[in-house]
Design goal:
Blueprint: H1 2-11, H2 19-47, H3 60-63, H4 68-94, H5 99-118, H6 132-153, H7 158-181, H8 183-188, H9 194-198, H10 200-222, H11 224-229, H12 238-249, H13 256-280
Helix pairs in contact: 1-6, 1-7, 1-13, 2-4, 2-5, 2-6, 4-5, 5-6, 6-7, 7-10, 7-13, 12-13
Length: about 280
Amino acid sequence: MAGIITGNAIAIKSEYFSLGIFILSLLTAIAFQITSNFANDYGDGLRGTDNKNRIGPERALQKGLLTAVVLKKGIVVSAIVSFLLAIFLVYYALGLDKVLLSMLFLLLALLAIWAAIKYTVGKKAYGYMALGDLFVFLFFGWVSVMGSFFLQSQILDTTVFIYGTALGLLSVGVLNLNNMRDISNDKNSNKITLAVLLGSEKAKIYHYLLIFLSGFCLFLGIGGECFKENPSMALIFIPLIHHLYKLKKTASAKGYDPLLKQLALSTFAISLFLFITHSLE
């Protein structure tokens, strides 16, 4: 949702801004995320990655709340709902005139569904081959921010690319915290994440880089002149500074779990901050 809100924050100053496109974009993003959550539960559950040694919260299949058959049906239903929402969104935003653009966005929707499912499902699940960070960056960052902005304005510019990079890096940060928390269990379960490849110490350094670079991109996107005219814009960095402070004090794998939630909520808060400040300009 943060990427969608950020893309619309940049577009809100446009005279062509549509609340309908904004709402449909959010609903489509939520549907994609539900598909992803179902698929992660299913894939990690079948592989045995979700076990008693996992530090994070227990999932539905692991707890026996849903069977694998029911969960698989849930994936199919949520994927269909996601694609139907995407069709309606593209039609609402682009109409029937721009066929090639519409086909491109529907292709992106299909790729998003594929990425949501293939993260943990199948023999060649990319989440087990240290590619999760790349896909999260692309879909939670560039695709969500630039795609939602384009549906509103039908143009692209440097600013939206910079904001897309910032949101992508923050989203990768959330995933990296998850992977640092689960590094021992993932290694034992043959789930090769980037954190597993780097090891705990280097994964932590990698995380510092993600947060610093995302902050730098936010600064570039907002612009130095904006900070001079409105110093209160610097408030946007407080959640990131607080996060880095907490990260420095964290030494145990279990300690990453609350940081994961904090960074996810901080990313969402940053997107809302951008939306509100751009709305008031």
